[in-house]
Structure to design on (82 residues):
């Protein structure tokens, strides 16, 4: 549950930081809403990149555990034996 919250927060924070930077730059340069839109997209991309990195790391950590786990028979295999 904690990892899922971390992933969701990473995406939201990326978008929020991008939006904040875009808004500040738009106010400074008077280019509204173009820099806001640009930095929102960059924030979204950065958030997704962080999510992909986290997912790959979690998958790499779980892989040895999955290989060492005992196999569980499928329901179909049990029906064939009866």
């Amino acid at each position: 549950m904690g990892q899922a919250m971390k992933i969701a927060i990473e995406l939201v924070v990326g978008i929020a930081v991008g939006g904040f930077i875009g808004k500040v730059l738009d106010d400074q340069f008077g280019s509204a809403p173009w820099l806001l839109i640009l930095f929102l997209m960059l924030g979204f991309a950065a958030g997704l990149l962080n999510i992909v990195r986290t997912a790959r790391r979690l998958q790499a950590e779980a892989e040895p555990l999955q290989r060492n786990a005992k196999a569980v028979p499928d329901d179909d295999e049990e029906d064939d034996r009866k």
About this structure: DSSP finds three helices and no strands in the chain.
